[in-house]
Amino acid sequence: MTTTEARPDVPQAEAGVASEAEAFAGRVFESTVAAAEVLMLYVGERLGLYRALADGGPATSTELAQRAGIHERYAREWLEQQATAGTLEVPEPNADPGQRRYAFPAAHAEVLLDGDSLNFLGPVARLVVGASLQIPALIEAYRTGEGVPMAQYGPDMVTGQADLNRPLFLGPLVTEWLPSIVDVHERLSSSAEPRVADIAAGGAWSSIGIARAYERVRVDAFDLDPASVALAERNIREQGLADRVTVHLQDATDATLVGRYDLVTILEALHDMSRPVDALRTARRLIGEGGAVVIMDERTAEEFEPATQDPVERFLYAVSMLACLPMSMAEQPSAATGTVIRPATVDRYAREAGFERVEVLPIEHLFFRLYRLHP
Questions:
Q1: Is the C or the N end of the chain the one with fewer CB within 10 Å?
Q2: Are residues 133 and 92 in the same domain?
Q3: Integer Cα distance of 45 and 50 in angstroms
Q4: Is 173 contained in some domain?
């Protein structure tokens, strides 16, 4: 690559610009490589290639092709790509291409296949592909100011989101976070028949987690997306909790939504809502005497920061443009919040909904911040 170091005739300012351009070009190239590798993760998941390697052990390209039911030449190219990326290991890289065996390290299998692990990121590729397929619709939405409805994103988005949150909702949410809110934990543990309203429940893993952790609780899970409700119903049946967790195809802003609940949750969903203040008004209306409203949403920075080095903030803005913001703008009027929902925005929405105080709970997590809204 040509640089300006060997050209003393180039003014210093121009040399600086050229150097900056080269650095940025390198960053764009690295991002391109990472994007392509995420697509290969998707291929590996959809075709069952990772599962075949995890269950059957190291394999040649012919063996993997036979296990997964794909063409050997594609299997070989995918295996070499995965080894080049460092996802798979090759004990004898100098062996004949058809005889090389490829191994799937246990630590990598945990990240891509273990749906109970807090390190589980396999569904991320589904989310990326599900959003990327909507690029033509997104471009048009950016021009018109309209949105792209959740239903248009398809099953990869629905299942990807649900599966990605599953370990968190079956784990820390009910083993650490809710128990740390002492009065809520005691109420769910000790009341005769405590009730929970889980608003925008998606695949209902949060509802399932709460019902599993608190054996007396009955949960009403609400969502307005038919595909998410169907997934939630299936998950609840498979977990044997249909007698205590009920799913409702209903908008959280629906004025007919009534009840008296000990806990109302909105978990990683407030920023997606077209009318978040109305949803919070519903939550406030639903809590009974001494009940609580708990919100979980993105752990954004307190303020906007250009050229941030925080990868989470960069990720949240990209997700907002690809999915969350256009989904929320598909229904008008819309608050058009976007994924980057800062604490000040949550506080403003809550006060507009009639809450007196918003408490940021002392819970540490890389991606999420928890709030308790006090009526």
A1: N
A2: no
A3: 6
A4: yes
| Position 86 in a domain | yes
pLDDT tens digits, 324-357? 999 999 999 999 999 999 999 999 999 999 999 9
Q: 73 and 109: one domain?
A: yes
Give CA angle at 323 (317, 327), nearest 5°. Answer: 125
Domain assignment present for 158? yes
Alpha-carbon distance 371 to 331, whole Å?
26
Residue 7 has pLDDT above 50, yes or no: no
Question: How many separate domains does the chain show?
Answer: 2
* Lookup: tokens for 335: 């608050």
Q: Which two tokens stand for residue 295?
A: 């919100």
Domain that holds residue 91: 22-113
Using alpha carbons, select from 100, 124, 120, 101 the residue that is nearest to residue 112. Answer: 120
Q: State pLDDT tens for residues 236-285.
A: 999 999 999 999 999 988 888 888 999 999 999 999 999 999 999 999 99
Burial of 339 (0-12, 13-18, 19+ CB in 10 A): buried
pLDDT tens, position by position, 171-218? 999 999 999 999 999 999 998 999 999 999 999 999 999 999 999 999
Cα→Cα distances 343→157, 334, 372, Å:
26, 19, 12
Residues 6+ apart with CB under 8 A from 220: 195, 196, 197, 198, 246, 248, 259, 261
